[in-house]
Design brief:
metal-binding, mainly alpha, 4Fe-4S, iron-sulfur, 5 helices, about 0% strand, about 130 residues, extended
C-alpha cells in the first residue's frame, strides 16, 4: 500500500499549554523535595566494611554486594500472582529487564495494595 501525502498533516503542530491553577502551583511549591526522598542517616564512613569493593588485576571471581546495595528478595501473593500472569501471557516488564531493585514494591502493591507492572510493547528487548 502506497503512502498518500494527503494523509499527513504537514503543518507544525504545537502543544496547547494551559495555565496552572493557583492551587496546583501551591501544591508544587509546597510539595515534597528531593530531601524527602533521600535518607538522611546513611553512614558517612564505610571503613569498617571488610569485604572487597574492587577486584585485583587478573581476578575473575565475582564480588559480593556491599550491605548498602543489598535489597530484599521480592515475595508476596501480589508479586507471585503478577509474575505468574506475565509468564502465562508471555509478557515482559521494564522492571525485569532493568533488574530494578524495587520490583517487589511495585508488584507487591506496597502499603496501599495496588500492584503495578510496566509492560513492554516490543519483544523481550528493552
Amino acid at each position: 500500500m502506497a503512502l498518500n501525502p494527503q494523509h499527513f498533516n504537514t503543518q507544525n503542530s504545537r502543544c496547547k499549554h494551559t495555565a496552572l491553577s493557583n492551587s496546583v502551583l501551591h501544591k508544587i511549591a509546597n510539595g515534597p523535595s528531593l530531601q524527602d526522598f533521600v535518607s538522611s542517616d546513611p553512614p558517612k564512613d564505610w571503613s569498617s566494611y571488610e569485604g572487597k569493593l574492587r577486584r585485583e588485576k587478573g581476578e575473575s571471581d565475582r564480588l559480593r554486594l556491599p550491605p548498602w546495595l543489598k535489597t530484599n528478595i521480592p515475595t508476596g501473593t501480589n508479586y507471585s500472582r503478577i509474575k505468574d500472569q506475565l509468564r502465562k501471557l508471555n509478557l515482559h516488564t521494564v522492571c525485569e529487564e532493568a533488574r530494578c531493585p524495587n520490583i517487589g514494591e511495585c508488584w507487591g502493591g506496597g502499603e496501599h495494595g495496588t500492584a503495578t507492572a510496566t509492560i513492554m510493547v516490543t519483544p523481550i528487548l528493552c
